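Review form for a predicted model. The reviewer records the input and the model, then writes brief findings.
Reviewer: anonymous (R2)
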Amino acid sequence: MWHPSPGLIFNRCCRLALIPLCAVWCAAYTIDCTLPRALAEPQQPSLAQDTNAPSQRRSVPHRLQQVSPTSARSAVEVSIGINPQNPDNLIAAAIMRGYPDATEPNFTFRSTDGGQSWETQATANPDARTQGDDVVVFAQDGTAIHGFISFKGLWEQQPKQAASGIVINRSPDGGASWNEAVAVIDHLNSRTPMEDKPWFAFDRNPHSPHFDNLYCSWTRFDVYNSPDPQDTTQILFARSLDQGRTFQPVIRISDQPGSCIDGDNAVEGAVPCVGVDGRVYVAWAGPRGIELDMSTDGGQSFGKDRVISEFVGGWDHEVEGIGRANGMPVTAVDHSSGPFRGSLYINWIDEKNGDKDVFLISSRDGGQTWSGRTRVNNDALRNGRDQFFTWMSVDPADGAINIAFYDRRDTTGTYTELTLARSIDGGRSFTNYAVDQLEAFACRENAFFGDYLGIDSQQGRVAIAFMHFLKDQRLAVSSAIFDFVPGKLDVR
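Model under review:
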């Protein structure tokens, strides 16, 4: 469990967009960036292959391309979306620092050629707030939204200005331009409460009674990292009935609160998804395990929370060379016309097998009953190798489940690779693919690595956006694009 201290608080600040207003973070980051290279670079063991257990990852053709500009110092915590009207149009968003052409902390990246090249655009920030926790999702007509947290004065005891909220920008043209920000929620002239880690989902089914609704769920901290048991975390929810132009009032959907200390006992990681009939599902992690709530009226009201899985070892993980890592759940629904249409999936990471593994459970009856766990990574069981930062996308064209995660099965020390796992049998089994055009990279714990990577899929195309260290120890965001034959395990 993480506790704030002068030596560690900059990592948590970084998670909330690396604000230069945070004096502690600035000091830590400046020291880190100005050390001589011989001192700044960690001493890593040489990369070694595990000769005792085969990798069991397939190697297939894919495209790898750096997304963030080569001049940027650090780019992390990335989300990606594929335009359902044009799979060659991709949009990613991330925190990026040290980009000499702009001072804003958040950026979007746009590709119109299937990820072969990327354009960079700074996110408007007229109030000079901290921005972070980026999310990109598309509506069915190709409208994109970029959502993120936006705050000011959070780390100051007596700030001259204060605010805390969640906002979105809309793009009607595939990320070429963005409309002015719209607030999901915004607290002006106050440091509390803090709104954190939002996620968004559109209802993209034209036959749904709630078609084009946009949903957002997130965690509210009464007072961030407060040890006072009277201060709690809750899962909140808001909906838009007009594609994000406006939002209706916020409601609380978690029945039981969590701790305000940002760790295993807080309720966090709320990810919404939409069923084929317009039901809204939200799952999150907390001290009771993985909890699920459901709305049958388009997000106007929710039922009683249900614990659907244990969370062995909690969601707040320790990974060597990473300042922190979480295994929070990701939810998705199969919207294809295939045999598993309507299936609800939840993907997460925990330590049930002693090391960190990727798991999936499925429900074929709208979340009433659940399968046992499927282990997604197929390396040797209990081999002491960690997987971390999982995210999932279910292709609406063929129902294939695509899960990306960082992987240390074939490396030593902090050297890290990337794996894509794919299932075409409703999550009963997974084929693992190595993103082997990416060279294994060493991590360093004193650099903020973000909290998640991104993946989306459409018509057999799987797009992963992820952060990684370069040889000069800068952090970059890159994309890996796989083009599968729809419904198959082979690429085109």
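Findings: The mean pLDDT is 89.
Further findings: Residues 340 and 426 are 6 Å apart (CA to CA).
Recommendation: see findings above.
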